Amino acid sequence: MSQSNESYAYFALTGTLDPEMVSRRTGIAPTDSWRKGDLHPRTRRERKFDRWELASRLPRTEELELHIADVLVQLEASPIGFAALAKEHSGRMQLVGYFHEEYPGLVFSASLVAGLAKFNLSMDFDFYALWSDARDDT
Question: Which InterPro entries does the annotation name (predicted)?
Fold first, then answer.
């Protein structure tokens, strides 16, 4: 039997920035953040850039569209601040999917597209197809 699909989304600011400044300007604490030169906890390599992230709060079994909507709701807590920061620091909505079953597809409603545009966000998709038609146990 195969695992269930897992997916999540997060908002990210990357480049040269002070993560604490982002939190001060928005009044929101990040889900994750780091400074250039910090060691990655798993690889022990130095980070090459600063980053501030805000992740979906939903379980990873939810559909990607719902994860995006949840992140956008969180950004609405400081819409002017996040829109400005996204312009200044290349704001991005990152989507990640681990598809153990067949790919479920992805549809963006007009309101979802409008929300992404409101915050001037680029999109990045990291999708991993982890199933095989040749074996029943993958």
Answer: DUF4279 (IPR025459)
